[in-house]
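Morning. Coffee machine broken again, so started the prediction first thing and wrote up yesterday's gels while waiting. Chain of 267 residues, entered below exactly as on the submission form.
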Amino acid sequence: MKQQDLKPALIDMGFEIGLIPKELYKYSGCTEEDKEKKLKALREKNIWLCCAKYLNDPFEGLSLYIDQHASHRYGWKQADVTKLYKVLKSLGENMLIGSFADSGLKEDMPLWAHYAQDHRGYCLQYEVIDNHYIYPVIYQSKRHLANETLSCFLKDIQNHDYEKDSVERFLVIWSSFMIKHTVWQYEKEYRVLKYEMQKPPRSESGRYVTEEELGLRLKAVYIGEKCSCRKELMEVGLKRGCEVYQMGFNPFQEEFKLTPQKVAVSP
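Came back before lunch.
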């Protein structure tokens, strides 16, 4: 689903999609268990998208809520509310999410620690070729009251009604995957959102999608200070024709920051 399809729903919620950066960064760990799989994906120009329900925030997709006292006006019963939230949570089984950062690299030591396996992983810099499938994460301290929207959405489900209005209500619910609590604001996250009509097998937590399909192109690889797959990443840089940098700390500088040093990738 493209950005422009979501804009009316977002405006109704008081939001609007701003400018998407021309470059985005994706941090990754590099354990012995998944190293080969991730390197293979890099060589083949694929990006991992994770099912929303497997992300580390248990409230993914649940930024909308119902006022329990007001719900009686819509003739809701507790069973209805339970059914609705079951449906909303099931959307997380079909929603594939790719997380990226609007990163300065030097300043983002928390991201290196949390998402690049304590600097043992790496960071990929992507050029944004087509931004229609990329959304900014909106950070809010509270959830959004959506009695009428969710009530009508439940009736749509019960009546198997999928007319224009029901599609617009679905778009509002879709946009809830863009909203996170302000505690996550340090991530400065942007997301690729891809909804799958068919649920992935239970054994799968997501799938790989090509860079081309997502409108992204690998521009540079930044190797973590403690990364164990430095040689392999340099080979990927050579094969893909992109720049490769080694992250490090300059003991003679005043600031607490990481410094990227360009490294040769020639054989």
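The chain is about 30% helix and 25% strand. Going to sketch it on the whiteboard this afternoon.
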